[in-house]
Amino acid sequence: MNLYQLDHLQYLETEAIHILREVAGEFERPALLFSGGKDSICLLRLAEKAFRPADIPLPLLNVETGHEFPELIQFRDRRARELGARLIVRTVEAAIADGLAHPVPGEISRNKLQIPVLLGAIEEFQFDCAIGGARRDEEKARAKERFFSFRDRFGQWDPKAQRPEIWHLYNARVNPGENMRVFPLSNWTEMDVWQYIQREQLAVPSIYFSHEREVVRRHNQWVPVPPPPAGNGAADPYHGARPQPGEPVQKLVCRVRTIGDMISTGMIESPADSVEDIIAEVAAARVTERGNRADDKCSEAAMEDRKKAGYF
Q1: pTM (predicted TM-score)
Q2: Res. 195: pLDDT tops 80
């Protein structure tokens, strides 16, 4: 099909599929980061289109903080089984126990602790490329990324040392120990993602749709109440994140707009219970997608600092 005859979503799809095939052709051991969130759901669909009827030639990798929404984990596991894909899961909890990750006293969120876990998984499996669902419209630091984002042998990112990508030509060369992060959805927007989900009729976790949930008001956002403790004598991973004295628990009809660490993901009040409703809501939104992420609010440079250290 002539590129000039493609509509907007078809062009984005074609671009992303081209990038995925470049990865398959250029790298020996690539992996696809799959959390079960809406962006990685689109990535999986694109990988199907890029490689079917053959098997998807790369494993799925997920780093668990221990603070995930249970609905997200269930969806992730079910989707991997449906595709017959190899799913590799590494956890912050195990990294802490092994001395690989070191919690900061008083810091509840485990987002930063995902960095050594991800770098450890890359080293363990000798991945030379990790494909992620990040988009430039999400956040200022992500807007500095190229499609192919080089990371040195320490897993670090230097935004001033990005490789040129003229005429859609990508420099995929890496030395032993170095790796590349690749972002096929870079040019997509939140609206594009939901319209693609609608067009492809893709299933998404139920937490993206309106539902009633217990929440508390914290840092000017609605924060979900974590699930009850296991009660088996194990340490509570949500210790410090549970409602505090003076924080009344309320029931709210809400949904998530972007999913991360459960402790830092803010809920939004919303009646949207279908993909069509979400598209209409996004079109009218005046707050950015990550405007309800507490981990991005802790400082203006929060995301960029994490990315320089090896974050997704």
Answers
A1: 0.89
A2: yes
